[in-house]
Structure formats: C-alpha cells, structure tokens
Amino acid sequence: MKIVCLLADKFEDIEALGTVAILRRAGIVVDMAAAENVPVVTGAFGTKVIPDVMMANVSETDYDGVFIPGGSAVPTLREMGSVHRLVRAFAAAKKLMCAICAGPSVLGALGLLDGIRYTSFPGTEKFMPAGLRVHAPSVIDGKIVTAAGAGCVMEFAFDVITVALGKTKSEEIQKRMQYHVF
Questions:
Q1: 181: in domain
Q2: What is the predicted pLDDT for the residue at 181?
C-alpha cells in the first residue's frame, strides 16, 4: 500500500505529520509531495518538511491512495490544476482518498463528495453542498475517509488503516500505540 500526501506551505503540521507517522507504523508507504514543486514545504506552525517527491513527478498509477491534510494550504491546493487532475484520476480509478480538516473541501469542490457521507472543519461545508455532512471525528464512506480537524488525527489515521489494510491491522496499531487502553 502506497499513499501520496499533498503538501503546500501552511499545511496543518499535526494533521499531516501525525497521520503520516501512524500510517507508516502500519507499514503503509507514504510519500510527501511538494504540491508547488519546492525543495522545502513549511507547515502552519513552522515545521519544515523536505518532500519525498515533487508534484510534477507524481502519477496516480504509482499510488494506491491520496491524502490531503488541512490548514491554510488548502485554498492553494483547491485551486491547483495539477491537484485537480491527480485527485480526479484517483477518483476515476476508485482508489483510496483521505482528507482531514479543510482538506475534504478539495474533494468537495470537484464534486467528489456529492451524495457521500463526510466530515470536515466547520465552515468548509460550503464546498460540499451535495455531500452528506456527518458530525463525527472521522467518517468512512467506501474508499473515502474524512476527518474534522487536528484533534481527530488518531481516529482518522486508524480509519485510513482500516480501509487500506483492514480492521485487524488498525486494532493492532491502536494497541501498539496504547490508544484508549486505560
């Protein structure tokens, strides 16, 4: 299983890095891609990331899924033609699509959440007028996983693992991380 994480400056640090770390614990390969093809991408709270790959070199055929973190980077991602093409290719191939916080608005703006259960950061629902908004930390609808925000990273990552590798693997990672064992 291999996922590409789309990063632009001002991505939400914990959403991107926390999710990537948990997915990697499960054995999922995650490449962090610089959407704007820059050598360093800086998070909203100053975390600097050296991307694994440039967006110009990302192809849907190389990945099983796409992950879009939230933060102030999302309006940039939502307007990028290269992001539109890539996300539409993932949707057409019925591959895993994951987005957290404002990230689901990228999917929504492309009409990919029409008739789909989703959650996102409050206020972003204007980008998914035909989506079925659910008030929950994380929501799975088929191969689409969405989450409400930074405080929901754990639930989101475990849901992504459930969809990608199965419930047993997700539960194994939760136990190894001591998630809600007390």
A1: no
A2: 77
